[in-house]
Write a structure and sequence with these properties.
Number of helices of chain B: 12
Order of helices and strands of chain B: HHHHHHHHHHHH
CATH topology of the largest domain in chain B: MetI-like fold
Radius of gyration of chain A: 25 Å
Helix content of chain B: over 70%
Largest sheet of chain A: none
Largest sheet of chain B: none
CATH architecture of the largest domain in chain B: Orthogonal Bundle
Distance between the termini of chain B: 45 Å
Distance between the termini of chain A: 18 Å
Number of helices of chain A: 13
Radius of gyration of chain B: 23 Å
Structural class of chain A: mainly alpha
Number of strands of chain A: 0
Low-confidence stretches of chain B: 1-5, 268-278
Number of strands of chain B: 0
Shape of chain B: globular
Oligomer: heterodimer
Low-confidence stretches of chain A: 298-303
Structural class of chain B: mainly alpha
Shape of chain A: flat
Strand content of chain B: under 5%
Largest interface: A-B, 101 and 93 residues
């Protein structure tokens, strides 16, 4: 940018003035993507927003849908139910990934294979994991059968069609994802830093606490955000392994129900908007926590 | 010496947890496979006999040949369009600083960060208004919404790795813009394009919410057909449903194996990892 400025000749044309700010024909390459996203993302989103402000029930007023949602505890309770699933799932996935990634950060034989095996659940997707959990954790599934045969249990544990089934499915699909991200952040930390600390007499815990963890903090925040996004959207597992009319009636089920079973698109859009707002609020909290805990450049990030 | 001894229990605990996770994962997948191959299975460890009839059952009952064709039509269309639109956009984003770039980045990030249902419901509503809901076109359009930003974000670092001097050199040698694209940029970007394409393929095949909201009976992809079958469990034999689940699993595993041959997962993630912070 500075170089072009010094090269500027006496009377810049409009085009060259624009080019100086980075606006030239290359930007046309961006046009199709921006136009498509405006038409297919921004427009429907705004359409949904205004639809949500025009309740189908007469006399509701501008905020009628929102008022109806928050005054009905069965509806507004879905926010808490969603968070009760998404927050623990995120915490488990991120916290469990840290030590595992820590021990796997070096190179060793079979690392690629182990990584590949851990990635499998990501590709399986939530629907398949839900279907598998129904069998495996069901009253006659292998899990309960094993515990019964060993004699730990007297009667099968009830692990599906309730909160726990959904939580398990979120951990199974979310953990590999968190692990991969944290492993790549961990591999990005210069190993010489740790060796230098060891030379200066730091023990393993001190090295982890004082070197690895601070350098990992921004990556952890990012991973937590992405995991939360995944867990928050929970839909197929909540309705398949969960109790879709009770303890796992999450926001996405409520929104789907309103829009496509009650055919109240206006209410459905309103719940969808609430869902987006709650998610963004939690993300803002997570990123805020990150900037309080850690000030400095993110590891190797380009900014 | 003492340091090693302190490190031991933690290490064993961690590997134990990994082993526990993997054993349960294997059990989960295994039980679906065994069920899909079994004859009658009541109160025993394994079914009484081995049969492949559930596969032919599932194939006919769920019209799987049609579902598979739809799945790949959708995936191929989404890959082609998102690459065609996304790669040039990634190039422009990587090379230029311009006013309003932050707004463009926001437009790219929101579809990836917001829950699919948040924009899926209004999107489906619009599709119903213009009578595209339930068609193949609708499903492809819906899947493009997250796919285009995804391609752009995956491709941007790849473009940044290409030295601009190479482009200048090609210009100096008299290459036109089109020749520059086809002879210099695209060949250099092939690894990135391949990675982005494969990831979009994996994501589209696994994309449940958006396809579920926009598809009709004739435009279901495999994952939606599987959900519908599982949701209406009891109508069909659950062995058939599991046979379909196994077919879905094989499809995704095949994609995973292909993907892993071309891209290293940790490398890949470190490339896309910058998306949420900015």
């Amino acid at each position: 940018m500075a170089a072009t400025e010094t090269l500027r000749v006496s009377a810049p044309t409009r085009r060259s003035r624009l080019a100086e700010r980075g606006v030239d024909r290359t930007l046309l390459l961006l046009a199709p993507a921006v136009v498509l996203l405006l038409a297919m993302f921004a427009y429907p989103f705004l359409y949904g927003l205004q639809l949500s402000l025009r309740p189908q029930e007469v006399g509701g007023g501008l905020l009628g849908n929102y008022r109806a949602f928050f005054s009905d505890s069965f509806e507004s309770g879905t926010i808490l139910k969603t968070l009760k699933l998404a927050v623990p799932a995120t915490a488990i996935n991120v916290l469990a990934s840290i030590p595992i990634a820590y021990y796997m950060r070096g190179t060793f034989r079979g690392k690629r294979l182990l990584t590949a095996i851990l990635v499998v659940p990501v590709t399986l997707g939530t629907v398949l994991v839900a279907e598998g959990l129904l069998r495996y954790l069901g009253p006659r599934g292998w899990f309960n059968r094993t515990l019964l045969e060993i004699g730990i249990l007297d009667e099968p544990l009830r692990l599906v069609h309730n909160y726990w089934g959904v939580l398990f499915s979120l951990v199974i699909t979310g953990f590999p994802f968190a692990f991969l991200l944290i492993l790549s952040y961990m591999s990005g930390i210069d190993p010489t830093l740790e060796r230098a600390a060891a030379t200066l007499g730091a023990g393993p815990w001190q090295r982890f606490r004082r070197i690895i963890l601070p350098l990992l903090a921004p990556g952890l925040a990012t991973t937590a955000v992405l995991c939360f996004v995944l867990a928050f959207a929970v839909f197929p597992s909540a309705s398949l392994v969960g109790e879709p009319s009770g303890s796992t009636r999450v926001l996405s089920i409520a929104a789907y129900h309103a829009a496509f079973e009650d055919y109240d698109y206006s209410m459905g859009s309103a719940i969808a908007m609430i869902m987006g707002a709650v998610e963004l609020a939690v993300i803002a909290l997570l990123l805020g926590a990150r900037s309080r805990l850690y000030k400095g450049p993110s590891t190797g990030g380009k900014g | 010496m003492s340091r090693r001894l302190v490190a031991r229990p933690g290490r064993w605990l961690v590997w134990g947890a990994v082993a526990f996770f993997l054993v349960n994962l294997a059990g989960l997948i295994g039980e679906v496979i065994v069920n899909s191959l079994g004859t009658r299975w009541f109160d025993t460890w394994l079914p009484e006999g081995l049969t492949f009839k559930w596969y032919s059952n599932a194939w006919d009952e769920f019209a799987l040949s049609h579902v598979l064709i739809v799945t790949f039509e959708v995936a191929l269309a989404v890959i082609a369009i998102s690459l065609l639109v996304g790669v040039p956009a990634a190039y422009a984003l990587a090379r230029r600083q311009f006013p309003g770039k932050r707004a463009v980045m926001l437009l790219l990030l929101l579809p990836l960060v917001l829950p699919p249902l948040t924009y899926g419901i209004p999107f489906a509503t619009v599709l119903y208004e213009i009578k595209v809901a339930g068609t193949l076109t609708g499903v492809i359009l819906a899947n493009l919404v997250p796919a285009i930003p995804f391609v752009i974000l995956v491709m941007t670092p790849f473009v940044e790795q290409v030295d601009p001097n190479i482009e200048s050199a090609a210009r100096m040698c008299g290459a036109s813009t089109r020749r520059l694209m086809t002879r210099v940029l695209v060949p250099l970007l092939i690894p990135g394009i391949l990675a982005a394409g494969l990831l979009v393929l994996v994501r589209t095949v696994a994309m449940f919410e958006l396809t579920f909201l926009t598809s009709g009976p004739d435009s279901q992809t495999l994952v939606v057909a599987l959900y519908n079958a599982a949701f209406a469990a009891g109508i069909r034999a659950d062995q058939s449903i599991d046979a379909m689940a196994v077919l879905y699993m094989l499809t995704t595993l095949l994609l995973l194996v292909v993907a892993l041959r071309f891209v290293n997962p940790t490398q890949l993630v470190s490339r896309v990892r910058e998306e949420p912070t900015q």
